[in-house]
Amino acid sequence: MRVVLAEDLALLREGLVSLLETHGFEIAAAVDNGPGLLKALLDHRPDVAVVDVRLPPSFTDEGLQAALEARRRVPGLPVLVLSQYVEQLYARELLADGTGGVGYLLKDRVFDSAQFVDAVRRVAAGGTAMDPEVISRLVARGVRDRPLGRLTPRELEVLELMAQGRSNAAIAQQLVVTERAVTKHTANIFAKLDLAVTGDDNRRVLAVLAYLDR
Amino acid sequence: MTEMANETVWQARLRTPGRGLLLTLIGLSAMLAGLFFITVVSTIGGFLGVLFFPRATRFLRSRVDRYRRVIGRWTGVEIERPYLPEPEAEPGLPGRFKSFVALISDPATWRDYLWVSVDPFVLAFTAALPIYMILYGIWGFLLAAFAGGLIADHGGNEWYTFVHVDAGYAHSPLRLAGTLVVATAFIAGAFLSGPPLMAVYIRWARHLLGPTERSRLALRVRHLTETRSDAVDASAAELRRIERDLHDGAQARLVAMGMSLGAIEHLLDRDPEKARLLLAQTRESSTKALHELRDLVRGIHPPVLADRGLGDAIKALSLDHPLRPEVTVELAGRPEPPVESAVYFAVSEILTNAAKHADASHVWVDLRHERGMLRVTVTDNGRGGATLDGGTGLRGLERRIGTFDGVLALSSPVGGPTIVTLELPCALSSPKISPS
Predict the structure, then answer these.
(1) Has the ipTM of the complex gone over 0.90?
(2) Of A206, B288, B305, B334, which cross-links B309 as Cys (Cβ 3.0–4.6 Å)?
(3) Which residues of chain B have pLDDT under 50?
(4) What is the CATH number of the domain that holds A200?
(5) Which domain holds residue A198?
(6) How far apart are CA B212 and CA B215, in angstroms?
(7) Are residues A73 and A178 in the same domain?
(8) A interface toward B at CB cutoff 8 Å?
(9) Do A142 and A167 fall into the same domain?
(10) Is the distance from CB of B230 to CB of B400 less than 8 angstroms?
(11) Which pTM value belongs to this model?
């Protein structure tokens, strides 16, 4: 699996390169600035891009802008954005085109390499990986409204994990329950929130995110 | 005439004579104050005047302020008070003497006196002229109706402009008609000439009652001194808070992590299982340290504000807000970074208030830049009754934006809605071309 990586701090860039290589990814390019990132994304057309939000030369959200621009030109290009901060605004912008294949994680999620690599793979496969912090804030705000307030605490937990982009199997593992139990919970959630049930994991995540982000 | 605010030409014409009358009445009490003032001045040679001078001056000022107030109300443009800042009140004779010196050396004191002594004449020939003309017109009607006959019957003799009122007046249709025409002309002329005459009067008033260059500067210096000390205090407090947060938070965690790593080094050979446990804890610690640093940085300078500027930063703020405020932004560029930051935190605080105290279900934020002013309006449909003091922190906010010559206005009737408006003078830099 070929990866384009953008991170301006050399130390972190090296760390990410070695982490991804250990897990069998091939680094097509590792760049350290916004314009370079856009060029690398368009030249290499990688299976997935791992991008730091803040990049030189402007040290603003240059990485995000380059990623969004690349996705405009190459629809569905999988991009996982890493940042020191998560902002709902940026999460929305990444999700706006509704095609999936996006991720938005805090940088410290890299500490747990297994989960991080899982997130990269998920995004590469067209799935979604949203940081738990983005989701928990969305849910916290939504609980004031009636439909979300009707969910049981366990269902809320499942909803959060689902919105992060996890599969039923991953959710079951995390909550230490059977996959069948998770399936039951998700069915309940979809019924309570009045969402159309879909077998497709990816579309399910996008539906939940759209619901939370109303 | 153009100075009248929010009035049609006809409204101005109809209202001006009444205003002239009001000014005449204000003038009477001002004249008395002037009389008192000059009497006190004449006793300065004896010590008594020194004692009474400050009181007489303040009394005179309070009378003259009435002119500033009514003219401000009519035109919509305040006449600023021109007085130099008084020294702080001190008890006893030295304090009295100090305030005597300050007041007697303030040119505005003498300009006030000049005003009360000269204004009656100026007023009579400008703003008050229409009311005299109207009275004269009414007199004409009275003459024609019965007073002319009465005068003639008693052997009197009178001229109404060119119309001779004497025996036979009451029976001369020509003279009666002449009287009516002239009287009507006077009254019509009064209403028509009112606004331009008032404009002349207002120009004179602004000239003598408004601030001089010197007092303007002195007031400005005082304002700057106050706001500067506020700004310095605020930033010192901010630095203290950051220091404390770092000391108790990230710094402490790093120390703990260092110690854990030392322990892990020891345990590595003897007890790898325990070492692994400690490692997991240490990683947890580093995550927490990062988390705390993140929160700290957010409080110093929010990332979206740095990345995208005020508009998007406030939109981001609203996305995290439980009430999801509706945000409208009309900015053609970015204000200076310090202004951006001050406004951002101000809006953040106002929104927090709306969520905490107002019991609102909807909040609207409107952000625009017009005629060199950045204006932010935050409206909520809550229960209202908010005050600047009393736990809302609005007073502190007002001081902080005061540093940028900004002002805060609060409208919060009981029952709502609450509207907080911030206005800061600032220029916008041209929008940055987004890199792509």
Answers:
(1) no
(2) B334
(3) 1-4, 433-436
(4) 3.40.50.2300
(5) 134-212
(6) 5
(7) no
(8) 34-35, 38, 53-54, 57-58, 60-62, 65-66, 69, 83-85, 87-90, 92, 107-108, 111, 137, 141, 144
(9) yes
(10) yes
(11) 0.71
